[in-house]
Amino acid sequence: MSRFKNTFSDGVGFDTILVMIALGYLVLFSAFPLVYNIVMSMQEVDLFSLASFDRPFVGLDNYRDVLGRPETMQIFFNTVKFVGFSVAAQLAIGFGLAMFFQLDFPGNTWLRGLFLAGWIMPAIVVGGVWSWILAGDFGVLNHILLATGLGDEKIFWLSDPEFALYSVILANIWLGVPFNMILLSVGLSGISEDVYEAAQMDGATRIQRFFTITLPLMRAQLGAVISLGVIFTLQQFDLFASLTQGGPSNASNVFQYWSWQLSFQNYEIGVGSVISVLMILFVVLVAAVYVRSTRHEHVA
Amino acid sequence: MRGNDVKRYGLLALALLFVGIYLFPLYWMYVTALKSNSEIFAIPPTFWPRDPQWIVMDVWQRMKMDVYLRNSLIIAFGVTVIVTMTGTGCAYVLARIRNRWMDAVLFTVLMMQVLPSSLMITPIFVVFNQVGLSEYPRLSVILAQAAKVLPLYIVLCRATFLQVPKELEEAARVDGNSRVGAFLTIIVPLARNGILVTSVLIFLQSFGEYVYSRSLITQRALQPATVGLQSFMGPNSSDWAGVMTYSAIYVTPILIVFVLLQRQIVSGLTSGALK
Amino acid sequence: MTYQIELENINKYYGGYHALRDISLGIEPGEFVALVGPSGCGKSTLLRTIAGLEGISGGTLRIAGETVNDRAPRERDLAMVFQSYALYPHMTVRRNLTYSMRLKRRSKADMERSVEEIARITGLESLLDRYPRELSGGQRQRVAMGRAIIREPKAFLFDEPLSNLDAALRVHMRSEVRQLHNRLNATSVYVTHDQIEAMTMADRVVVMRAGVVEQMGAPLDLYDRPCNRFVAGFIGSPAMNFVDGIIREDGVSVRLDLPGEAVLRFAGARPAGETVTVGFRPEHLSVTMAATGGNILSLPVGFVERTGSTSYVLSSTTPEILLSVPERFPKEQGSVNAQIAPELVHLFSKEDGTALL
Ligand SMILES: Nc1ncnc2c1ncn2[C@@H]1O[C@H](COP(=O)(O)OP(=O)(O)OP(=O)(O)O)[C@@H](O)[C@H]1O
Ligand SMILES: [Mg+2]
Question: Which residues form the ABC transporter domain (chain C) (predicted)?
Answer without folding.
Answer: 5-235
